[in-house]
Amino acid sequence: MEEINKLPIVIVLITGAFLAILNQTLLATAIPHIMEDLELTENTAQWVTTIFMLVNGIMIPITAFLIETFTTRRLFITAMSTFAIGTFICAISPNFFILMTGRVVQAAGAGIMMPLMMTIFLLIFPIEKRGTAMGTVGLVIGFAPALGPVVSGWLVEQFPWRSLFYIVLPLAVIDVIVAYFVMKNITKRTFPKVDILSIIVSTLGFGGILYGFSSAGNTGWSDSVVILSLLVGTISLVIFITRQFTLAQPILEFRVFKNKLFTITMIIGMIGFIGLIAAETILPIYMQNMAGYSAFESGLMILPGALLMGIMSPINGRIFDRFGARYLVIIGLLLLTITSFLYTRLTPDTSLPYLTIVFAIRMFGISMIMMPSTTAGLNQLSHRLIPHGSAMTNTMRQVAASIGTALLITIMTATALNSGESASALEQIHGVNISFYVATGLSLFGLVLAFFIKGTTPAEDRAKLTTERESER
Protein backbone atom coordinates (compact mmCIF):
# COMPACT_ATOMS: atom_id res chain seq x y z
CA MET A 1 0.00 0.00 0.00
CA GLU A 2 3.01 2.32 0.38
CA GLU A 3 3.20 3.18 -3.37
CA ILE A 4 -0.28 4.78 -3.29
CA ASN A 5 -0.31 8.59 -3.21
CA LYS A 6 -2.53 8.95 -0.15
CA LEU A 7 -3.08 12.75 -0.07
CA PRO A 8 -5.42 13.12 -3.11
CA ILE A 9 -7.44 10.08 -1.95
CA VAL A 10 -7.73 11.50 1.58
CA ILE A 11 -8.87 14.92 0.26
CA VAL A 12 -11.52 13.36 -2.02
CA LEU A 13 -12.84 11.12 0.78
CA ILE A 14 -12.88 13.88 3.41
CA THR A 15 -14.73 16.24 1.04
CA GLY A 16 -17.34 13.59 0.21
CA ALA A 17 -17.91 12.66 3.85
CA PHE A 18 -18.03 16.32 4.92
CA LEU A 19 -20.78 17.09 2.37
CA ALA A 20 -22.70 13.93 3.34
CA ILE A 21 -22.64 14.69 7.10
CA LEU A 22 -23.26 18.42 6.57
CA ASN A 23 -26.56 17.51 4.89
CA GLN A 24 -27.88 15.80 8.04
CA THR A 25 -28.24 19.16 9.79
CA LEU A 26 -28.12 21.64 6.89
CA LEU A 27 -31.92 22.06 6.71
CA ALA A 28 -32.47 22.37 10.50
CA THR A 29 -32.79 26.16 10.50
CA ALA A 30 -34.35 26.28 6.99
CA ILE A 31 -37.46 24.29 8.01
CA PRO A 32 -39.61 27.38 8.85
CA HIS A 33 -38.85 28.81 5.36
CA ILE A 34 -39.66 25.46 3.68
CA MET A 35 -42.92 25.25 5.69
CA GLU A 36 -43.96 28.72 4.52
CA ASP A 37 -42.96 28.19 0.87
CA LEU A 38 -44.49 24.72 0.43
CA GLU A 39 -47.39 25.29 2.90
CA LEU A 40 -46.50 22.45 5.27
CA THR A 41 -47.15 21.74 8.95
CA GLU A 42 -44.18 21.48 11.35
CA ASN A 43 -44.52 17.67 11.67
CA THR A 44 -44.55 17.20 7.88
CA ALA A 45 -41.63 19.59 7.28
CA GLN A 46 -39.54 17.78 9.92
CA TRP A 47 -39.39 14.81 7.53
CA VAL A 48 -36.83 16.57 5.31
CA THR A 49 -34.25 15.93 8.06
CA THR A 50 -35.74 12.69 9.48
CA ILE A 51 -35.90 10.91 6.10
CA PHE A 52 -32.22 11.70 5.45
CA MET A 53 -31.09 10.12 8.73
CA LEU A 54 -33.47 7.18 8.21
CA VAL A 55 -32.26 6.23 4.70
CA ASN A 56 -28.67 6.95 5.77
CA GLY A 57 -29.06 4.51 8.68
CA ILE A 58 -30.61 1.84 6.42
CA MET A 59 -27.78 2.09 3.85
CA ILE A 60 -24.89 1.79 6.31
CA PRO A 61 -25.34 -1.94 7.22
CA ILE A 62 -25.38 -2.86 3.51
CA THR A 63 -22.10 -0.97 2.90
CA ALA A 64 -19.83 -3.81 4.09
CA PHE A 65 -21.45 -6.04 1.44
CA LEU A 66 -21.06 -3.31 -1.24
CA ILE A 67 -17.37 -2.76 -0.32
CA GLU A 68 -16.67 -6.48 -0.85
CA THR A 69 -18.64 -6.60 -4.13
CA PHE A 70 -17.53 -3.47 -6.05
CA THR A 71 -14.16 -1.82 -6.64
CA THR A 72 -13.31 1.11 -4.34
CA ARG A 73 -13.22 3.56 -7.24
CA ARG A 74 -16.55 2.51 -8.73
CA LEU A 75 -18.33 2.43 -5.34
CA PHE A 76 -17.09 5.89 -4.30
CA ILE A 77 -17.89 7.52 -7.66
CA THR A 78 -21.35 5.87 -7.71
CA ALA A 79 -22.11 6.92 -4.11
CA MET A 80 -20.93 10.51 -4.68
CA SER A 81 -22.77 10.76 -8.03
CA THR A 82 -25.98 9.48 -6.38
CA PHE A 83 -25.56 12.12 -3.67
CA ALA A 84 -25.04 14.83 -6.35
CA ILE A 85 -28.14 13.71 -8.32
CA GLY A 86 -30.20 13.83 -5.09
CA THR A 87 -28.86 17.32 -4.36
CA PHE A 88 -29.88 18.47 -7.87
CA ILE A 89 -33.41 17.04 -7.41
CA CYS A 90 -33.72 18.94 -4.10
CA ALA A 91 -32.46 22.17 -5.68
CA ILE A 92 -35.12 22.17 -8.43
CA SER A 93 -37.93 20.61 -6.32
CA PRO A 94 -41.25 22.42 -7.01
CA ASN A 95 -43.12 20.56 -4.24
CA PHE A 96 -42.66 18.52 -1.05
CA PHE A 97 -42.86 15.11 -2.80
CA ILE A 98 -39.98 15.95 -5.18
CA LEU A 99 -37.97 17.42 -2.26
CA MET A 100 -38.45 14.18 -0.27
CA THR A 101 -37.44 12.12 -3.33
CA GLY A 102 -34.25 14.17 -3.61
CA ARG A 103 -33.47 13.69 0.10
CA VAL A 104 -33.91 9.90 -0.23
CA VAL A 105 -31.54 9.79 -3.25
CA GLN A 106 -29.04 12.05 -1.41
CA ALA A 107 -29.10 9.83 1.69
CA ALA A 108 -28.67 6.62 -0.36
CA GLY A 109 -25.31 7.98 -1.55
CA ALA A 110 -24.36 9.60 1.76
CA GLY A 111 -24.98 6.40 3.76
CA ILE A 112 -22.16 4.65 1.91
CA MET A 113 -19.63 7.47 2.43
CA MET A 114 -18.66 7.22 6.13
CA PRO A 115 -18.09 3.43 6.37
CA LEU A 116 -16.27 3.47 3.01
CA MET A 117 -13.99 6.33 4.10
CA MET A 118 -13.18 4.69 7.45
CA THR A 119 -12.45 1.34 5.74
CA ILE A 120 -10.13 2.93 3.14
CA PHE A 121 -8.27 4.95 5.81
CA LEU A 122 -7.69 1.82 7.89
CA LEU A 123 -6.32 -0.02 4.85
CA ILE A 124 -4.04 2.68 3.37
CA PHE A 125 -2.49 3.79 6.67
CA PRO A 126 -0.29 1.49 8.78
CA ILE A 127 -1.68 0.73 12.23
CA GLU A 128 0.72 3.13 14.00
CA LYS A 129 -0.46 6.09 11.86
CA ARG A 130 -4.19 5.36 11.94
CA GLY A 131 -4.84 7.63 14.93
CA THR A 132 -3.70 10.72 13.00
CA ALA A 133 -5.70 9.66 9.92
CA MET A 134 -8.85 8.93 11.92
CA GLY A 135 -8.37 12.19 13.83
CA THR A 136 -8.99 13.92 10.49
CA VAL A 137 -12.21 11.88 10.21
CA GLY A 138 -13.12 13.12 13.71
CA LEU A 139 -12.71 16.68 12.48
CA VAL A 140 -15.37 16.01 9.80
CA ILE A 141 -17.78 14.21 12.17
CA GLY A 142 -17.61 16.95 14.79
CA PHE A 143 -17.41 20.02 12.59
CA ALA A 144 -19.93 19.28 9.78
CA PRO A 145 -23.11 18.78 11.92
CA ALA A 146 -22.38 21.91 13.97
CA LEU A 147 -21.54 24.01 10.92
CA GLY A 148 -24.79 23.01 9.12
CA PRO A 149 -27.28 25.08 11.20
CA VAL A 150 -24.95 28.12 11.34
CA VAL A 151 -24.37 28.19 7.54
CA SER A 152 -28.01 27.51 6.65
CA GLY A 153 -29.21 30.03 9.28
CA TRP A 154 -27.24 32.77 7.55
CA LEU A 155 -28.04 31.67 3.97
CA VAL A 156 -31.83 31.40 4.36
CA GLU A 157 -31.89 34.93 5.77
CA GLN A 158 -30.23 36.22 2.57
CA PHE A 159 -31.43 33.82 -0.15
CA PRO A 160 -34.26 31.28 -0.89
CA TRP A 161 -33.87 27.90 0.92
CA ARG A 162 -33.01 26.10 -2.37
CA SER A 163 -29.71 28.03 -2.38
CA LEU A 164 -28.48 25.53 0.24
CA PHE A 165 -28.54 22.77 -2.38
CA TYR A 166 -27.10 24.98 -5.15
CA ILE A 167 -24.03 25.58 -2.93
CA VAL A 168 -23.53 21.87 -2.13
CA LEU A 169 -24.15 20.66 -5.73
CA PRO A 170 -21.00 22.07 -7.48
CA LEU A 171 -18.82 20.86 -4.59
CA ALA A 172 -20.25 17.34 -4.98
CA VAL A 173 -19.76 17.40 -8.78
CA ILE A 174 -16.14 18.62 -8.43
CA ASP A 175 -15.49 15.81 -5.91
CA VAL A 176 -16.82 13.20 -8.40
CA ILE A 177 -14.62 14.60 -11.22
CA VAL A 178 -11.47 14.67 -9.05
CA ALA A 179 -12.25 11.15 -7.74
CA TYR A 180 -12.43 9.89 -11.35
CA PHE A 181 -8.75 10.78 -11.78
CA VAL A 182 -7.23 10.15 -8.32
CA MET A 183 -9.24 7.36 -6.65
CA LYS A 184 -7.52 3.95 -6.58
CA ASN A 185 -8.89 0.47 -5.94
CA ILE A 186 -7.90 -0.34 -2.36
CA THR A 187 -10.47 -2.70 -0.84
CA LYS A 188 -10.37 -6.42 -1.63
CA ARG A 189 -13.35 -7.88 -3.49
CA THR A 190 -14.61 -11.21 -2.16
CA PHE A 191 -17.89 -11.24 -4.12
CA PRO A 192 -20.22 -12.34 -1.29
CA LYS A 193 -23.53 -13.82 -2.44
CA VAL A 194 -26.50 -11.46 -2.43
CA ASP A 195 -28.87 -12.55 0.33
CA ILE A 196 -32.06 -10.66 -0.58
CA LEU A 197 -33.86 -11.68 2.65
CA SER A 198 -31.01 -10.23 4.77
CA ILE A 199 -31.20 -6.90 2.92
CA ILE A 200 -35.02 -6.77 3.33
CA VAL A 201 -35.02 -7.59 7.08
CA SER A 202 -32.00 -5.31 7.65
CA THR A 203 -33.91 -2.42 6.03
CA LEU A 204 -37.08 -3.18 8.03
CA GLY A 205 -35.07 -3.71 11.24
CA PHE A 206 -32.85 -0.64 11.28
CA GLY A 207 -35.46 1.48 9.46
CA GLY A 208 -38.23 0.51 11.91
CA ILE A 209 -36.14 1.19 15.01
CA LEU A 210 -34.70 4.50 13.71
CA TYR A 211 -38.15 5.68 12.58
CA GLY A 212 -39.82 4.58 15.84
CA PHE A 213 -37.40 6.37 18.11
CA SER A 214 -37.20 9.48 15.87
CA SER A 215 -41.01 9.74 15.84
CA ALA A 216 -41.29 9.09 19.60
CA GLY A 217 -39.45 12.36 20.25
CA ASN A 218 -42.24 14.22 18.40
CA THR A 219 -45.45 12.20 18.93
CA GLY A 220 -44.79 10.32 22.21
CA TRP A 221 -44.29 6.64 23.04
CA SER A 222 -48.00 5.73 23.15
CA ASP A 223 -48.51 6.61 19.47
CA SER A 224 -49.67 3.51 17.54
CA VAL A 225 -47.28 4.18 14.61
CA VAL A 226 -44.32 4.43 17.03
CA ILE A 227 -45.26 1.16 18.77
CA LEU A 228 -45.82 -0.65 15.45
CA SER A 229 -42.57 0.54 13.86
CA LEU A 230 -40.53 -0.41 16.97
CA LEU A 231 -42.21 -3.82 17.03
CA VAL A 232 -41.59 -4.48 13.31
CA GLY A 233 -38.04 -3.13 13.67
CA THR A 234 -37.19 -5.33 16.68
CA ILE A 235 -38.63 -8.55 15.15
CA SER A 236 -36.90 -7.87 11.80
CA LEU A 237 -33.60 -7.13 13.55
CA VAL A 238 -33.76 -10.40 15.52
CA ILE A 239 -34.40 -12.31 12.26
CA PHE A 240 -31.55 -10.40 10.54
CA ILE A 241 -28.99 -11.06 13.32
CA THR A 242 -29.97 -14.75 13.64
CA ARG A 243 -29.71 -15.19 9.86
CA GLN A 244 -26.22 -13.64 9.69
CA PHE A 245 -24.82 -16.40 11.91
CA THR A 246 -26.14 -19.06 9.50
CA LEU A 247 -24.66 -17.50 6.33
CA ALA A 248 -21.19 -18.35 5.03
CA GLN A 249 -20.89 -14.73 3.80
CA PRO A 250 -23.04 -12.51 6.03
CA ILE A 251 -24.16 -9.01 4.99
CA LEU A 252 -23.01 -7.69 8.39
CA GLU A 253 -20.55 -9.74 10.42
CA PHE A 254 -21.80 -9.86 14.03
CA ARG A 255 -18.83 -12.04 15.00
CA VAL A 256 -16.83 -8.80 15.40
CA PHE A 257 -18.47 -8.60 18.84
CA LYS A 258 -16.48 -11.67 19.90
CA ASN A 259 -13.59 -9.24 20.30
CA LYS A 260 -14.07 -7.82 23.81
CA LEU A 261 -12.11 -4.59 23.23
CA PHE A 262 -14.00 -3.84 19.99
CA THR A 263 -17.33 -4.25 21.85
CA ILE A 264 -16.25 -2.02 24.77
CA THR A 265 -14.95 0.75 22.49
CA MET A 266 -18.12 0.60 20.37
CA ILE A 267 -20.35 1.09 23.45
CA ILE A 268 -18.13 4.00 24.57
CA GLY A 269 -18.33 5.53 21.06
CA MET A 270 -22.14 5.24 21.15
CA ILE A 271 -22.25 7.00 24.55
CA GLY A 272 -20.00 9.76 23.17
CA PHE A 273 -22.24 10.18 20.13
CA ILE A 274 -25.38 10.38 22.32
CA GLY A 275 -23.57 13.07 24.36
CA LEU A 276 -22.81 14.99 21.17
CA ILE A 277 -26.23 14.77 19.45
CA ALA A 278 -28.37 15.09 22.61
CA ALA A 279 -26.69 18.34 23.76
CA GLU A 280 -26.88 19.82 20.24
CA THR A 281 -30.64 19.03 20.22
CA ILE A 282 -31.73 19.82 23.79
CA LEU A 283 -29.72 23.01 24.45
CA PRO A 284 -31.14 25.01 21.47
CA ILE A 285 -34.70 23.98 22.56
CA TYR A 286 -33.94 25.18 26.12
CA MET A 287 -32.27 28.39 24.92
CA GLN A 288 -34.95 29.45 22.41
CA ASN A 289 -38.14 28.18 24.11
CA MET A 290 -37.32 28.58 27.80
CA ALA A 291 -34.47 31.09 28.28
CA GLY A 292 -35.38 33.70 25.67
CA TYR A 293 -32.31 33.41 23.44
CA SER A 294 -32.51 33.83 19.63
CA ALA A 295 -31.78 31.09 17.05
CA PHE A 296 -28.60 32.97 16.11
CA GLU A 297 -27.41 32.99 19.76
CA SER A 298 -28.02 29.24 20.11
CA GLY A 299 -25.99 28.72 16.91
CA LEU A 300 -23.19 30.88 18.34
CA MET A 301 -23.24 28.81 21.56
CA ILE A 302 -22.49 25.64 19.55
CA LEU A 303 -19.83 27.12 17.23
CA PRO A 304 -16.77 27.52 19.57
CA GLY A 305 -17.18 23.94 20.80
CA ALA A 306 -17.47 22.64 17.23
CA LEU A 307 -14.33 24.54 16.20
CA LEU A 308 -12.45 23.23 19.26
CA MET A 309 -13.49 19.66 18.48
CA GLY A 310 -12.36 20.10 14.87
CA ILE A 311 -8.97 21.48 15.92
CA MET A 312 -8.40 18.84 18.61
CA SER A 313 -9.33 15.73 16.57
CA PRO A 314 -6.06 15.54 14.56
CA ILE A 315 -4.03 16.43 17.69
CA ASN A 316 -5.76 13.66 19.66
CA GLY A 317 -5.01 11.35 16.72
CA ARG A 318 -1.29 12.01 17.08
CA ILE A 319 -1.47 11.44 20.86
CA PHE A 320 -3.33 8.17 20.17
CA ASP A 321 -0.58 7.01 17.77
CA ARG A 322 2.03 7.45 20.50
CA PHE A 323 0.22 6.37 23.66
CA GLY A 324 -2.98 4.50 22.67
CA ALA A 325 -6.60 5.22 23.53
CA ARG A 326 -6.91 4.42 27.24
CA TYR A 327 -5.98 7.75 28.88
CA LEU A 328 -7.51 9.90 26.11
CA VAL A 329 -10.87 8.14 26.48
CA ILE A 330 -10.80 8.23 30.31
CA ILE A 331 -10.08 12.01 30.36
CA GLY A 332 -12.70 12.60 27.62
CA LEU A 333 -15.43 10.72 29.48
CA LEU A 334 -14.52 12.48 32.73
CA LEU A 335 -15.01 15.86 30.99
CA LEU A 336 -18.28 14.63 29.41
CA THR A 337 -19.58 13.51 32.83
CA ILE A 338 -18.60 16.80 34.54
CA THR A 339 -20.15 19.01 31.81
CA SER A 340 -23.34 16.91 31.76
CA PHE A 341 -23.61 17.49 35.53
CA LEU A 342 -22.95 21.25 35.10
CA TYR A 343 -25.97 21.36 32.75
CA THR A 344 -28.24 19.95 35.50
CA ARG A 345 -28.22 23.40 37.12
CA LEU A 346 -29.82 25.42 34.30
CA THR A 347 -32.23 28.31 35.08
CA PRO A 348 -34.08 30.90 32.92
CA ASP A 349 -31.18 33.30 33.69
CA THR A 350 -28.19 31.04 32.88
CA SER A 351 -25.73 33.25 30.98
CA LEU A 352 -24.62 32.72 27.36
CA PRO A 353 -20.87 32.66 28.31
CA TYR A 354 -21.56 29.86 30.87
CA LEU A 355 -23.48 27.77 28.31
CA THR A 356 -20.82 28.37 25.63
CA ILE A 357 -17.78 27.59 27.83
CA VAL A 358 -19.31 24.41 29.29
CA PHE A 359 -20.30 23.27 25.77
CA ALA A 360 -16.77 23.96 24.48
CA ILE A 361 -15.23 21.88 27.31
CA ARG A 362 -17.81 19.17 26.54
CA MET A 363 -16.81 19.08 22.85
CA PHE A 364 -13.13 19.01 23.85
CA GLY A 365 -13.91 15.88 25.87
CA ILE A 366 -15.97 14.28 23.07
CA SER A 367 -13.05 14.80 20.64
CA MET A 368 -10.96 12.61 22.99
CA ILE A 369 -13.63 9.88 22.96
CA MET A 370 -14.96 9.47 19.42
CA MET A 371 -12.11 8.64 17.06
CA PRO A 372 -9.62 7.22 19.63
CA SER A 373 -12.23 4.70 20.85
CA THR A 374 -13.28 3.80 17.27
CA THR A 375 -9.69 3.38 16.04
CA ALA A 376 -8.65 1.35 19.10
CA GLY A 377 -11.56 -1.05 18.47
CA LEU A 378 -11.03 -1.37 14.70
CA ASN A 379 -7.27 -1.90 15.24
CA GLN A 380 -8.17 -5.21 16.92
CA LEU A 381 -9.76 -6.57 13.72
CA SER A 382 -8.12 -8.35 10.81
CA HIS A 383 -8.17 -6.75 7.32
CA ARG A 384 -11.05 -9.04 6.34
CA LEU A 385 -13.23 -7.82 9.24
CA ILE A 386 -12.43 -4.08 8.96
CA PRO A 387 -15.26 -3.28 6.45
CA HIS A 388 -17.71 -5.12 8.74
CA GLY A 389 -16.36 -3.42 11.88
CA SER A 390 -16.55 -0.02 10.17
CA ALA A 391 -20.13 -0.60 8.97
CA MET A 392 -21.13 -1.90 12.42
CA THR A 393 -19.59 1.15 14.16
CA ASN A 394 -21.42 3.62 11.91
CA THR A 395 -24.72 1.70 12.13
CA MET A 396 -24.62 1.58 15.93
CA ARG A 397 -23.83 5.30 16.13
CA GLN A 398 -26.86 6.18 13.99
CA VAL A 399 -29.03 3.93 16.18
CA ALA A 400 -27.50 5.44 19.37
CA ALA A 401 -28.10 9.00 18.12
CA SER A 402 -31.70 8.23 17.21
CA ILE A 403 -32.54 6.32 20.39
CA GLY A 404 -30.53 8.59 22.71
CA THR A 405 -32.04 11.84 21.40
CA ALA A 406 -35.62 10.49 21.44
CA LEU A 407 -35.13 9.09 24.95
CA LEU A 408 -33.66 12.31 26.41
CA ILE A 409 -36.30 14.52 24.75
CA THR A 410 -39.02 12.23 26.13
CA ILE A 411 -37.47 12.46 29.62
CA MET A 412 -37.25 16.26 29.21
CA THR A 413 -40.98 16.61 28.39
CA ALA A 414 -42.21 13.90 30.80
CA THR A 415 -40.34 15.29 33.85
CA ALA A 416 -41.20 18.96 33.26
CA LEU A 417 -43.21 20.18 36.26
CA ASN A 418 -45.76 21.58 33.82
CA SER A 419 -45.72 21.18 30.04
CA GLY A 420 -49.02 22.90 29.24
CA GLU A 421 -49.43 26.28 27.56
CA SER A 422 -49.48 27.99 30.98
CA ALA A 423 -46.14 26.38 31.97
CA SER A 424 -43.50 28.78 33.24
CA ALA A 425 -39.90 28.61 31.97
CA LEU A 426 -38.76 27.34 35.40
CA GLU A 427 -41.25 24.44 35.29
CA GLN A 428 -40.14 23.42 31.79
CA ILE A 429 -36.39 23.75 32.59
CA HIS A 430 -36.82 21.18 35.38
CA GLY A 431 -37.27 18.57 32.62
CA VAL A 432 -34.09 19.75 30.83
CA ASN A 433 -32.12 19.39 34.08
CA ILE A 434 -33.46 15.86 34.67
CA SER A 435 -32.51 14.82 31.10
CA PHE A 436 -28.95 15.97 31.79
CA TYR A 437 -28.92 13.94 35.04
CA VAL A 438 -29.66 10.89 32.86
CA ALA A 439 -26.91 11.96 30.42
CA THR A 440 -24.52 12.28 33.42
CA GLY A 441 -25.34 8.70 34.51
CA LEU A 442 -24.79 7.43 30.96
CA SER A 443 -21.37 9.08 30.60
CA LEU A 444 -20.40 7.84 34.09
CA PHE A 445 -21.16 4.28 32.90
CA GLY A 446 -18.92 4.95 29.88
CA LEU A 447 -16.16 6.20 32.21
CA VAL A 448 -16.26 2.92 34.17
CA LEU A 449 -16.04 0.95 30.89
CA ALA A 450 -13.03 3.04 29.78
CA PHE A 451 -10.91 1.51 32.55
CA PHE A 452 -11.29 -1.86 30.79
CA ILE A 453 -9.52 -0.57 27.65
CA LYS A 454 -6.04 -2.07 27.51
CA GLY A 455 -3.22 0.46 27.56
CA THR A 456 -1.68 -0.82 24.32
CA THR A 457 -0.23 1.43 21.62
CA PRO A 458 -1.02 0.97 17.90
CA ALA A 459 2.51 -0.43 17.35
CA GLU A 460 1.82 -3.16 19.94
CA ASP A 461 -1.57 -3.87 18.30
CA ARG A 462 0.20 -4.31 14.96
CA ALA A 463 2.69 -6.77 16.41
CA LYS A 464 -0.18 -8.77 17.97
CA LEU A 465 -2.16 -8.90 14.69
CA THR A 466 0.97 -9.94 12.74
CA THR A 467 1.57 -12.79 15.21
CA GLU A 468 -2.06 -13.90 14.92
CA ARG A 469 -1.93 -13.88 11.10
CA GLU A 470 1.29 -15.94 11.08
CA SER A 471 -0.20 -18.49 13.49
CA GLU A 472 -3.31 -18.76 11.23
CA ARG A 473 -1.07 -19.75 8.32
TrEMBL record:
Subcellular location(s): the record lists:
Cell membrane
Its domain of life? Bacteria
TM segment ranges: 7-27, 47-67, 74-98, 104-125, 137-157, 163-182, 194-213, 225-241, 261-287, 293-315, 327-346, 352-378, 399-417, 429-453
- Tell me the PROSITE patterns matching this sequence: MFS (PS50850)
Q: List keywords of the entry alphabetically.
A: Cell membrane, Membrane, Transmembrane, Transmembrane helix, Transport
**Bilayer topology:** Multi-pass membrane protein
Q: Which GO terms describe its molecular function?
A: transmembrane transporter activity
Positions of the Major facilitator superfamily (MFS) profile domain: 9-458
**InterPro entries cross-referenced by the UniProt entry:** EmrB-like, MFS, MFS_dom, MFS_trans_sf
Entry protein name? Multidrug efflux MFS transporter
